[in-house]
C-alpha cells in the first residue's frame, strides 16, 4: 500500500487535559478510511490535531512531509481540507462567495472557474442557490456547500467530521454517493468520522476504532464490520 498520511504517537491536549494518548494509523493514498468510536472517544480531536487546531505532538507525515507543528493554513496549503462538525460555512456570505473562499490558497484563476462549474454540476442545488446567503440554506444544502467548498481547495485529503449529522436519510445517501464518486473520479483520499458506523463502513475501505484517545482496532472495513463487539456496540445487531 502507498501511504498518504502516516501518524505515529499522536497526542493532543486541551490545556492540561490529554485527549489523545499516542495514536498510530496510516491512510492509504486514494483510499477512504473510517474512524469510529463512541461519544468523547477523540475522533473530532484527531481531525483537529491533524489540522493544527489543537496542541499536538507526535510524528505525522503527509506524502513524506511533516504536518504537526504547522499552522492550520499551512496544512491547508499542503492539500488537507477539513469539513468540521456542524458544517462551518460562512453564513453571511453567498454560496458563490463560500466556494471562492474555499479556493483562497490557489492562484490558478481559470482552473478555479472551471472547478466552480464542476461543483455546480455535482451539486445542482448549489447552482440554484448561488446568490443566496449560506445561512439561509437548509441543513443538507449547507453540508453540500461545506463539502463543495472543501473540494475547491483541490485537496489530496479530505477530513470529514460527522457529515451525516442531522440530515434526512435521502440527503445522506446522496452525499455519501458523492463522496464515493469524488474519491473514485478525482482520487481524493478521505478520513471520515461518523456516528453512523454502518454508513461509514459501507463507504470506507479501511477502518480504525478509537476508545478514550487510543486506537483499539484496525483493519479492512469489511472485516471490522464482522467483529462481534463492533456489531453489538456500533451496528446494533
Ligand atoms: P463526539 O462523537 O461526541 O463528537 P469525539 O470522539 O469526536 O466525540 P472529541 O470531541 O474528540 O470526541 O473529544 C475527546 C475528549 O476531549 C473528550 O473527553 C472531550 O470532553 C474532550 N474535549 C473535546 N473538546 C474539548 C475542549 N474544547 N476543551 C476541553 N476538552 C475537550
UniProtKB/TrEMBL annotation:
GO BP annotations, alphabetical order: L-amino acid transport
UniProt keyword Oxidoreductase present: no
Keyword terms: Amino-acid transport, ATP-binding, Nucleotide-binding, Transport
SMART domains with a match to the protein in the record: AAA
Molecular function GO terms recorded: ATP binding; ATP hydrolysis activity; branched-chain amino acid transmembrane transporter activity
Gene3D superfamilies: P-loop containing nucleotide triphosphate hydrolases
Family: Belongs to the ABC transporter superfamily.
Domain of life: Bacteria
Organism of origin: Alsobacter sp. KACC 23698
UniProt domain ABC transporter: residue ranges: 5-237
Listed name of the protein: ABC transporter ATP-binding protein
InterPro entries hit by this protein: AAA+_ATPase, ABC_transporter-like_ATP-bd, ABC_transporter-like_CS, BCAA_Transport_ATP-bd_LivF, P-loop_NTPase
Amino acid at each position: 500500500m502507498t501511504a498518504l498520511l502516516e501518524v505515529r504517537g499522536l497526542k493532543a491536549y486541551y490545556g492540561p487535559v490529554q485527549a489523545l494518548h499516542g495514536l498510530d494509523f496510516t491512510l492509504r493514498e486514494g483510499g477512504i478510511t473510517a474512524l469510529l468510536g463512541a461519544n468523547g472517544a477523540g475522533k473530532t480531536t484527531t481531525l483537529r490535531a491533524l489540522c493544527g487546531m489543537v496542541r499536538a505532538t507526535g510524528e505525522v507525515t503527509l506524502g513524506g512531509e511533516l504536518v504537526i507543528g504547522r499552522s492550520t493554513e499551512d496544512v491547508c496549503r499542503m492539500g488537507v481540507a477539513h469539513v468540521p462538525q456542524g458544517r462551518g460555512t460562512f453564513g453571511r456570505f453567498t454560496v458563490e462567495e463560500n466556494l471562492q473562499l474555499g479556493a483562497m490558497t490557489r492562484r490558478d484563476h481559470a482552473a478555479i472557474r472551471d472547478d466552480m462549474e464542476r461543483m455546480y454540476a455535482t451539486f445542482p442545488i448549489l447552482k440554484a442557490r448561488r446568490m443566496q446567503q449560506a445561512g439561509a440554506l437548509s441543513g443538507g444544502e449547507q453540508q453540500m456547500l461545506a463539502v463543495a467548498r472543501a473540494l475547491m481547495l483541490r485537496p489530496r485529503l479530505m477530513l470529514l467530521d460527522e457529515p451525516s449529522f442531522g440530515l434526512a436519510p435521502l440527503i445522506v445517501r446522496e452525499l455519501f454517493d458523492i463522496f464515493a464518486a469524488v474519491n473514485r473520479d478525482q482520487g481524493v483520499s478521505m478520513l471520515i468520522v461518523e456516528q453512523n458506523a454502518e454508513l461509514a463502513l459501507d463507504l470506507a475501505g479501511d477502518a480504525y476504532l478509537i476508545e478514550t484517545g487510543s486506537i483499539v482496532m484496525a483493519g479492512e472495513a469489511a472485516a471490522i464490520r464482522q467483529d462481534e463487539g463492533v456489531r453489538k456496540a456500533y451496528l446494533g445487531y
